[in-house]
């Protein structure tokens, strides 16, 4: 239920390409976001490779709140709020590990990895009259979704299935989360999670990776520094023709479409790396056929999970902390079967590209942080942001589903689609209304 009386549609005017600065700086709006967006949408929680064995756990976040992703003794995956049902203490204060129980340090209640309350210190003497322990297990999410190794959850039992929530953006996951050779033999995390805090609103990050094609100008210095795996000028390898794609669910993806005859010898650091990527490319052609050349370069799944699906292959969750503070969590993927030398080569490239030490990420963070600070003032808030590039020009593409613009440098359609959906979450009270709104807009250009 909404607790404030503003209408998000008055602040987000996608038909005019204007969005109020209030949605990026106003704490009341942020408070509303926590209930309307983060308590209802599907959120990325972790990856299967982080909980391989029974008892493995990984402490993640959903919005501001700490959650435990764990695999119980029977092998089932669970996600619990990391808060004791007795008096709220955090029951797990480690980042990851393996356990049979989560024992709360406050009054020593113990919870099994399936969430059941299995131990209460001095239960017979201290807790009279007795209570039904089966009613006091850990608070569990309403639904869990697993897709190609990624694990998601929602607190809302009425939310659609995860695959319906993804909609046609599934196409990006199918081509981007598979092994680099296009097989389903799998990817794994390289190390663990990089975490750091930035003084900006979380939506700057989400819209950037949903497809802000115009900001690449701010990476000119790192392009000159030749950050890419090829060592040539640029940050990444050549992605061919760029295709910008928006989805009515609020997701946005940038695809690169490369000619199928292209080789991958530009990964020329050594014969091993070069041969590996060429081998993968040859296999990709066999495994994916005409889709092999279509690669999701970067995208955002609404609201706050962003990914790069080529090289680099990395995933970022922008966990909100307040209107002007966000905790960024980034993980990096490699193919399980890649030679060690390839994994080392990619680790070094990923770290110089992204994360708190990554030069490209530093450019982006500087923009988001200063934009947030410079939009907080009384005078600044009077002028909306400009999102007018390529208004209403999107159409259909022969292979890539969604609302497509093939000239991405002339369109801000993906940020507009993201904010249109954001406004619907903020204004509409139920999932049935959200689904109706999504159907009404469908694939119309934005
Ligand atoms: Fe956890 Fe009391 S708060 S046992
Ligand atoms: Fe950038």
Assign an overall shape. globular
| Topology, number of strands | 22
Beta-strand content estimate: 15-25%
| Broad structural category | alpha+beta
- SS field, number of helical segments: 13
If you had to describe this structure to a student in words, what would you say it looks like?
The structure is a single chain. This protein has 13 helices and 22 strands. The protein is an alpha+beta fold. The strands form five sheets. Strands 13, 14, 15, 16, 17, 18, 19, 20 and 22 form a nine-stranded antiparallel β-sheet that branches. A four-stranded antiparallel β-sheet has the order 6-5-4-7, with no helix packed on it. Fe (iii) ion (FE) binds at residues 215, 219, 360, 364.
Write the layout of secondary structure elements.
Elements lengths: L7 H4 E2 L4 E2 L2 H4 L1 H12 L4 E5 L8 E7 L2 E7 L5 E5 L14 E3 L2 E3 L5 E4 L4 E4 L2 H4 L16 E5 L2 E5 L7 H5 L3 H7 L10 E3 L4 E5 L3 H10 L8 H5 L16 E6 L5 E6 L13 H18 L5 E8 L3 E5 L3 E10 L2 E11 L4 H14 L5 H15 L11 E2 L16 E3 L7 H15 L3 H11 L5
Antiparallel strand pairs: 1-2, 2-21, 3-12, 4-5, 4-7, 5-6, 8-9, 9-10, 11-12, 13-20, 14-20, 15-16, 15-22, 16-17, 17-18, 18-19, 19-20
Helix pairs in contact: 3-12, 7-12
This protein binds FE2/S2 (inorganic) cluster and fe (iii) ion (FE).
């Amino acid at each position: 239920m909404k607790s404030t009386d503003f209408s998000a549609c008055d602040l987000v005017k996608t038909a005019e390409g204007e969005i109020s600065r209030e949605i990026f700086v106003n704490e009341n709006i942020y408070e509303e976001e926590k209930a309307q967006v983060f308590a209802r949408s599907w959120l990325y929680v972790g990856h299967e490779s982080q909980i391989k064995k029974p008892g493995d756990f990984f402490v993640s976040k959903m919005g501001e709140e700490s959650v435990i992703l764990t695999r119980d003794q029977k092998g089932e995956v669970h996600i619990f709020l990391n808060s004791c049902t007795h008096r709220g203490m955090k029951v797990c204060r480690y980042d990851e590990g393996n356990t049979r129980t989560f024992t709360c340090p406050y009054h020593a209640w113990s919870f099994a990895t399936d969430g059941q309350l299995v131990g209460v210190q001095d239960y017979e003497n201290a807790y009279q009259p007795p209570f039904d322990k089966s009613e006091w297990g850990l608070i569990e999410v309403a639904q869990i979704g697993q897709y190609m190794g990624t694990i998601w959850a929602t607190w809302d039992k009425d939310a659609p299935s995860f695959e319906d929530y993804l909609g046609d953006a599934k196409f990006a996951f199918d081509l981007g989360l598979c092994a680099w050779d296009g097989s389903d033999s799998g990817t794994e995390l390289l190390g663990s999670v990089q975490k750091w805090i930035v003084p900006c609103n979380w939506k700057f990050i989400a819209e950037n990776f949903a497809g802000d094609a115009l900001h690449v100008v701010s990476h000119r210095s790192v392009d000159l520094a030749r950050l890419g795996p090829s060592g040539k000028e640029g940050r990444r390898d050549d992605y061919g023709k760029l295709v910008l794609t928006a989805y009515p669910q609020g997701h946005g993806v940038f695809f690169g479409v490369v000619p199928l005859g292209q080789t991958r010898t530009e990964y020329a650091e050594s014969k091993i790396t070069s041969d590996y990527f060429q081998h993968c490319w040859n296999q990709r052609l066999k495994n994916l056929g005409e889709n092999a050349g279509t690669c999701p370069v970067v995208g955002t799944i609404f609201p706050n999970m962003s990914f790069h699906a080529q090289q680099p292959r990395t995933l970022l969750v922008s966990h909100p902390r307040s209107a002007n503070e966000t905790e960024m969590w980034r993980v990096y993927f490699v193919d399980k079967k890649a030679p060690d030398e390839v994994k080392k080569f990619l680790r070094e490239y990923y770290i110089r590209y992204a994360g708190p030490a990554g030069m490209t990420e530093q450019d982006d963070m500087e923009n988001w942080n200063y934009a947030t600070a410079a939009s907080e003032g009384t005078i600044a808030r009077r002028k909306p942001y400009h999102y007018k590039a390529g208004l209403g020009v999107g159409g259909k593409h022969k292979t890539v589903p969604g609302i497509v613009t093939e000239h991405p440098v002339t369109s801000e359609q993906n940020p507009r689609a993201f904010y249109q959906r954001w406004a619907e979450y903020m204004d509409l009270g139920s999932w049935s209304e959200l689904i109706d709104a999504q159907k009404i807009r469908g694939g119309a250009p934005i």
